[in-house]
Amino acid sequence: MKRKVSGILSNVIFLVAVAYSIISIRDYYSRSLSIYYLIGSVFSVNLIIYFYCGKCSCRDSDCAHVIPGYLTRFLPKREDGPYSIFDYTITVFSLIFMIGMPNYIFWGNYEQLGIFNGLIFLTFLIIYKFVCLGCENKRCTLTR
Which of 33, 64, 96, 97 lies at a CB distance of 3.0 to 4.6 Å from 7, suitable for a disulfide? Predict the structure, then answer.
């Protein structure tokens, strides 16, 4: 139960970080750039869920992230199995977009940069310390 609560909490904190970025980009930089980031983030999340979560052996029964495991049911079915270099590449580039774009835009504003990166750090800390601990997916690079 602790893993599932931590998984949901990590999803919420990551969503807050992305929402904070969208609002900050809209208010301080450019409305069109914030729309581009919103569309790119939605697309990136779907790519991660399809290419990474879609191959997880826990997605149907014991997904500690809860929401991504549930969402894999609505995407085309993928076989459980080892992750390919393509799966890793799509996942990494999606994360780079979602984390890198706000870092690039907020570079001169330390307050925005600190808030965004603090939320991202907290998300990954929760995932690493609580969600991945005890996960049954032995193919995942974060399973310990």
Answer: 64
pTM tops 0.85: yes
Q: What is the reported pLDDT for 80?
A: 79
Dump pLDDT digits (tens) for 100-141.
999 999 998 899 999 999 999 999 999 888 877 777 777 777
End-to-end CA distance of the chain: 18
- What is the domain partition of the chain in residue ranges? 2-131
- Phi and psi based region of residue 134 (left: phi greater than 0; alpha: psi -120 to 50; beta: remaining): left
Nearest to 98 by CA among 29, 32, 134, 47: 47
Tokens of 20: 């904070």
| Token pair recorded at residue 94 | 């999606």
- H helices of 29-61, in order, are 31-51
Tens digits of residue pLDDT in 6-32: 888 999 999 999 999 999 999 989 999
